[in-house]
């Protein structure tokens, strides 16, 4: 059974994350899970302690209501201090396999991989993060793996399958021939035929990497296009009906080569689907 930690800020956004965790716990017939809320301790001690007590009371009441839905009652954790450190400590303390969070404000989402709390959690805990973007109406039906030629994509797929969030029956894969490279080739006078050859070569390489991990997909379930990652992934999500985006990260670079710098945050901010962000194992 997987162990789940839900980080909640007590907002409606976090309520969606809690409901997704309930669904995952219920599906496996119960199990260990926790609700974690972090309070900034940059305030007078009496004020902080009062906030802690209020949050504990609120979450404990919520936990009792959720127990019947999930099949097991979640542990309530209210910590104080720097959010990332508290979340990592909580995850390590329970041996969590998955961190579930709600989709925060757009500004925070755009900063997802540039020094925010969740980036620090992903990097320091090596814990997969499931970002829940909206109300939970059904189990995930179609997962889309954003894939490049790095090993991180294969690792992300493996972890998504282990967590029960993706299966070969509902899997689609998408990759992009990056527009910077394509643009440079066009400026050099290289023909569209050469660009098409590059796209086909990438497809062949991806097929080889998928074969190496025992994944065989039909042509219609592997989309390789020339364009920006945001555009290609967005199109693939619409085409496949994908409701879960899966992507892997590097430990130091924050994201795989497929998503360079701000591209990852733009992608995560632009897609409406939930997203599973998988860092390399410790």
TrEMBL record:
Cited Pfam families: Usp (PF00582)
Which CDD domains does its entry note? USP-like
Q: What Gene3D superfamilies does UniProt report for this protein, alphabetically?
A: HUPs
Q: Which residues form a coiled coil?
A: 185-212
Q: Which GO terms describe its molecular function?
A: ATP binding
Q: Where is the UspA domain?
A: 3-132, 140-279
Record keywords: ATP-binding, Coiled coil, Nucleotide-binding
The record's section on SUPFAM superfamilies has:
Adenine nucleotide alpha hydrolases-like
Family assignment? Belongs to the universal stress protein A family.
Q: What is this protein called?
A: Universal stress protein
Q: Which organism is it from?
A: Ectopseudomonas alcaliphila
